[in-house]
Amino acid sequence: MDEVKQAIREVMDFPKPGIGFKDITPVLQDARLFSRVIDALTTWAAALDPDIFVGIESRGFLFASPVAIGLKKGMALIRKKGKLPYETVEVKAPNEYAEEIFQIHVDAVKKGERVVIIDDLIATGWSSISAIDLVKKLDGRVVGFGALVDLSFLNGVPNIKQKHPDVEVKTLIQFE
Amino acid sequence: MDEVKQAIREVMDFPKPGIGFKDITPVLQDARLFSRVIDALTTWAAALDPDIFVGIESRGFLFASPVAIGLKKGMALIRKKGKLPYETVEVKAPNEYAEEIFQIHVDAVKKGERVVIIDDLIATGWSSISAIDLVKKLDGRVVGFGALVDLSFLNGVPNIKQKHPDVEVKTLIQFE
């Protein structure tokens, strides 16, 4: 994954002054690196025997969707408040920049289904925890949370493990 | 595709009173139907010999990403203004509900590359036309525009063909 890490571009002062944003678009644009990332997430997820995947809007969709297709599973969407048309449940989802609200359709995950959630990046872990909380509201059994990037200096993975010790957390690239 | 069409759920009065919104999430959640949709888009796109795929935020990401992976290609993102961190070009992108602005990174598509753009749905075709215009600003050669759903009563496909007759437009399901 060293080559993938090299391809991630840091954009300074986005979205706020002082923030160095990890821009993953060069990885997506490179067919070989994009495939390598999806292959790694797919191999990891397959071992968890999931029934369904959940992608977090909107960059999470880029990774959750091909992994779900590769394993011949369906996927459900976690979106920001107001985007999903049907009946939803919701949670507060604070992140580094804002206090958002995540929603999921009430019929997205069935009781007891084994769920793997996929996002692009774990920062503080707060929004990951919110996403897990949300799936649990539907009585889904969250067995894994996968992401391409871990901003490990923000302690996100330990934060998630502390709140949800039963969820296997996988990241492919760490920035210390 | 009759079974896929049956699975699409109409949600009334979303996002505005009087609108019957076509909710594709039941298709995504059904592993068999989701795979069938991605297979059909992949087969169509393969014949166009694309160099790269472009997905339109955010539901377009759900379809563009697995098609790109299936054909071992990269993908680039069209996003709403303010979401992409690096240097961008942009176009006005009016849709049925609002006047938006679409952006793409300046390095997303290389000059002369064969590009297939994928979105979830074609309504009036205005935002599809804007997306094609945007890729053409980077001197990409847009060879195809694919979507799951065509609200054909809004005349989107003919609108796109009139403005961009060189782009092959493919939709899997039509609502008359």
Uncertain parts of chain A: none
**Biggest sheet: strand arrangement of chain A:** 5-6-4-3-7-8-9
Main sheet characteristics of chain A: 7 strands, mixed
How many separate structural domains of chain A?
A: 1
- Which fold name fills CATH's third level, the topology of chain A? Rossmann fold
Please identify, by name, the CATH architecture of chain A.
3-Layer(aba) Sandwich
Give the CATH level 1 class of chain A.
Answer: Alpha Beta
Average per-residue pLDDT of chain A, rounded, comes to 97
Strand content of chain A: 25-35%
Morphology call of chain A: globular
The topology string of helices and strands of chain A comes to HEEHHEHEEEEHEHE
Helicity range of the residues of chain A?
25-40%
Describe the structure.
The structure is a homodimer of 176-residue chains. With 176 residues, chain A is an alpha/beta fold. The first copy, chain A, has a single domain (49-175), classed as Rossmann fold, CATH 3.40.50. Chain A contains six helices and nine strands, in the order αββααβαββββαβαβ. Chain A has helices spanning 2-7, 25-29, 31-46, 59-70, 126-137, 156-163; strands spanning 9-12, 20-23, 52-56, 74-80, 88-94, 99-105, 114-122, 141-150, 168-174. Chain A has a seven-stranded mixed beta sheet with strand order 5-6-4-3-7-8-9, sandwiched between helices. In chain A, helix 3 crosses helix 4. The longest helix of chain A is centred in the first third of the chain and has 16 residues, at 31-46. The relative contact order of chain A is 0.16. The A-B interface holds A 9, 11, 14-15, 21, 23, 25-26, 28-31, 34-35, 38, 52, 55, 57-59, 61-63, 65-66, 68-70, 72-77, 79, 82, 84-86, 105, 107-108 and B 9, 11, 14-15, 21, 23, 25-26, 28-31, 34-35, 38, 52, 55, 57-59, 61-63, 65-66, 68-70, 72-77, 79, 82, 84-86, 105, 107-108.
